[in-house]
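Quiz preparation item.
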């Protein structure tokens, strides 16, 4: 199915910065943004092979659907805005972002929410000329669905659904639809993480839930072992059986994918004796270049009958340490003895595998997998759709001015009740270099502009120009699960000319360079940046880096 170009919706006006916020002192001017990244694992990929992950960086909880010869995929985005990025491919391995399903402030209100709340685990499907995304907005009215004729958008405003829990998905059978999701069990909770999978009919014509809800799975594949967080369920039908696949074990390094089946849609469902069908939790934790936390899969079938699974996993640089978030991987699904298999127990997720038997798609710009770089010169009418901020903006805080991104100060970074003047891009590689050219003259102590690298409202860093004790300086500050910043390093600077700010990331360390008048100096080398890892910062996102203007 062809899709139209990204439209100038309400969000694109925000991204263009038209009618920017009332003028304030000391606007910051960013002339470009450069990114260059490479994977810590270096591999050779032949012409008939592809590289995992297929979406590098913070793109978790993937859901996929096929319409004809086209594949569409959507991932979680929590309280980042625009949210729910939508991707297109014709070969399952070469993906291009085509839009954001949440791209208008009136669709969802993330005000006051932490970064890792908001929209969890979307599911995308297609029926009768419409695309559907069913989703949960955690702490913002819970479950809803949106629709679009074109997956690139615009997507409708949410229609709210009256059931609790997370991770809804739609199973279509003929002209009927059913929603499956994680809810509380039909008994008192036996232990922390005790959840259940439920099903209820969804009247897609009226947009309402109908009939009774039925519990399909209580706890997990074997409640006697106290399995936690059975979630991310999907149902498919094959050869007379209904197959229910779901994630189990929580989204850390004990994560897995399990399968059950039934001859009837509402059960009873019998677990596969060979579960899990995907996990890395039994492998040697000291193995080189590990892939961990695999699970949250969804299957898709190609026109020739082959089956594939998208799923999330991570690439730690240390002991469960990764700054770039959970990523989207792809592997084939094989069927044996009436059950699906992704990987046998003890097998490592490969970084390189044989491509699907599909015509190769053209790479996107920028790519989303492998080693790559890009430059954004801010010379378009609106920011590219890959730029994201924190929480729903109430008013624009920037404008584009002939190749310059002009930003006015807004809420301080870390103020959960506000929206900082911050536009960022995902850090997609553990080894990455990010730079920008900044022109800025702070007028008062505390005013600042530069690059921010953010995991949460309590875990981020700032590198740029500010004033301390009345004097302009180049400064590096960090916030490590705290309510205030720590000045790590600073140096006097003349703010009247442009300064190039460069952050060099290498796994759990970062270095910070600045260039003035052709002379480059390092403000700080070997900063311990593990506080930007998901393990130390908490939550479910990855590090986002980009221009910021504000006050501390």
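Solution:
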């Amino acid at each position: 199915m062809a899709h139209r170009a990204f439209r100038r919706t309400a969000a694109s006006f925000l991204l263009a910065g038209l009618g920017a916020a009332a003028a304030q002192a000391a606007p910051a001017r960013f002339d470009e943004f450069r990114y260059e990244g490479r994977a810590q694992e270096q591999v050779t990929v032949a012409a008939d092979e592809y590289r995992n992950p297929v979406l590098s960086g913070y793109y978790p909880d993937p859901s996929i659907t096929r319409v004809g010869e086209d594949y569409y995929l959507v991932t979680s985005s929590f309280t980042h805005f625009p949210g729910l990025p939508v991707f297109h491919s014709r070969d399952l391995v070469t993906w291009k972002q085509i839009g954001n399903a949440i791209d208008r402030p009136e669709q969802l209100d993330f005000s006051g929410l932490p970064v890792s709340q908001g929209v969890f685990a979307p599911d995308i499907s297609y029926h009768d000329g419409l695309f559907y995304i069913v989703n949960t907005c955690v702490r913002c009215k819970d479950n809803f669905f949106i629709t679009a004729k074109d997956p690139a958008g615009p997507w409708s405003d949410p229609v709210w659904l009256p059931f609790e829990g997370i991770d809804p998905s739609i199973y279509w059978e003929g002209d009927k639809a059913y929603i499956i999701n994680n809810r509380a069990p039909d008994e008192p909770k036996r232990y922390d993480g005790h959840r259940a999978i439920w099903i209820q009919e969804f009247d897609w014509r009226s947009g309402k839930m109908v009939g009774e809800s039925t519990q399909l799975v209580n706890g997990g594949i074997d409640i006697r072992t106290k399995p936690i967080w059975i979630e991310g369920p999907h149902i498919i039908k094959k050869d007379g059986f209904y197959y229910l696949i779901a994630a189990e074990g929580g989204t850390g390094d004990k994560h897995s994918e399990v399968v059950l089946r039934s001859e009837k849609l509402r059960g009873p469902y019998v677990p596969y004796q060979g579960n899990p069908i995907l996990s890395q939790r039994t492998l040697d934790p000291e193995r080189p270049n590990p892939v961990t936390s695999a699970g949250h899969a969804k299957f898709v079938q190609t026109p020739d009958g082959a089956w594939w699974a998208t799923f999330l996993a991570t690439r730690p640089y240390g002991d469960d340490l990764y700054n770039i978030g959970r990523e989207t991987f792809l592997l084939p699904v094989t069927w044996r003895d009436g059950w699906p298999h992704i990987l046998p127990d003890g097998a490592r997720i490969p970084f390189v595998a044989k491509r699907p038997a599909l015509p190769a798609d053209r790479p996107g710009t920028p790519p989303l997998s492998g080693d790559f770089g890009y430059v954004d010169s801010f010379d378009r009418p609106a920011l590219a759709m890959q730029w994201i901020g924190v929480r729903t903006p109430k008013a624009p805080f920037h404008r584009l001015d002939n190749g310059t991104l002009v930003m006015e100060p807004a809420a301080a970074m870390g103020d959960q009740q506000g929206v900082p003047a911050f536009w960022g891009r995902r850090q997609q590689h553990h080894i990455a270099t990010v730079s920008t050219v900044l022109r800025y003259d702070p007028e008062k102590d505390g005013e600042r502009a530069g690059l921010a690298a953010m995991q949460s409202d309590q875990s981020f860093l700032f590198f740029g120009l500010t004033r301390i004790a009345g004097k302009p300086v180049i400064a590096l500050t960090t916030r490590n699960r705290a309510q205030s910043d720590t000045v790590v390093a600073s140096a006097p600077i003349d703010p009247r000319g442009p300064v190039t700010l460069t952050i060099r990331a290498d796994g759990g360390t970062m270095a910070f360079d600045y260039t003035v008048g052709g002379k480059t100096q390092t403000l700080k080398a070997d900063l311990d940046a593990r506080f930007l890892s998901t393990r130390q910062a908490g939550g479910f996102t990855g590090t986002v880096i980009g221009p910021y203007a504000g006050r501390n």
